[in-house]
Amino acid sequence: HAKRQGKNNYQQYNDNIQTITNNNLKMETLLHRALERDEFLLVYQPQIDIKTNTICGVEALVRWNSKEQGMVSPGEFITIAEETGLIVPIGEWVLKTACLQNKKWQDMGLPPMVISVNISIRQFYHSNFVEKLTTILQESKLEPRYLQLEITESIAMDAEAAVNILRTITHLGVQIAIDDFGKGYSSLNYLKQFPINHLKIDQSFVKDIYSDKGIISTIITLGHNLNLKVIAEGVEKCEQWDLLATSGCDILQGYYISKPLNREDLPAFITTYYYKPSS
Ligand code: C2E
Ligand code: MG
Ligand code: MG
Ligand code: MG
């Protein structure tokens, strides 16, 4: 009886693996088709300079407007895109679209902003990455200082290679932010070596603002000592804004300021925000 039970469990385990594999294969096919059908789009979340209370940047966030499934958020497809390598063409589309859009806003007469684009580790280490980036900057005619790449601490797994790629990118004039800082594998040694401009405090610390006050002010001090500006994301409440401002944080991003907006809604938000008397 025990043996039969074991066999059943094994069978079930195999079936589960089969389901996961089938789902991944299906997802891969769907993502391929999404690229061909042009089903991806970007939304843009404003970032506020605390001192001047003006918009200094936007983060571009990808969405998949699927014919079958409706609007799909990156949490549901980025991992599979990374595993299958599809993140390379998807990420290239994101980078190109973000640069073109930012240039368009500048040409419309909006105050110049930095557009931040998330870059997956696999995309970052892809052999053509810097070449693609250079071409996109040339073709979009966006000044490189108005583009920022967001990478995570995980690129430090191969610190030597990372430093070389980062140097090439910063030589182009493009800015670099470390996203989700404090969440992953952290080493102060790479921070010192990496040519970067911004640290983004991980949302989890902002969420538990009272218990994590010490961590937040430590990250801000660390960033400032390294000549970096510090961004807090996931700001949902007035109390978080106040505490971050008191702690010396430079830039804020979160639902309290604005949810990510469609490209056609951003200009109106900026115009209203600029003329809103600061409280
Ligand atoms: P992230 O880069 O850390 O982006 C911040 C996420 O937090 C976004 O989720 C954003 O919509 C959400 N968020 C912003 N403000 C708040 C807030 O006040 N409260 C809460 N609870 N959440 C807030 P989203 O758009 O679902 O993206 C999730 C993640 O997917 C991103 O995390 C990023 O790692 C990845 N991602 C998004 N777009 C791209 C992309 O174009 N390429 C790559 N490689 N990854 C992307
Ligand atoms: Mg990000
Ligand atoms: Mg983040
Ligand atoms: Mg992230």
From TrEMBL:
Protein name, UniProt field: EAL domain-containing protein
Organism: Evansella tamaricis
Listed transmembrane segments: none
Source organism, top-level taxon: Bacteria
Residue stretches making up the EAL domain: 24-274
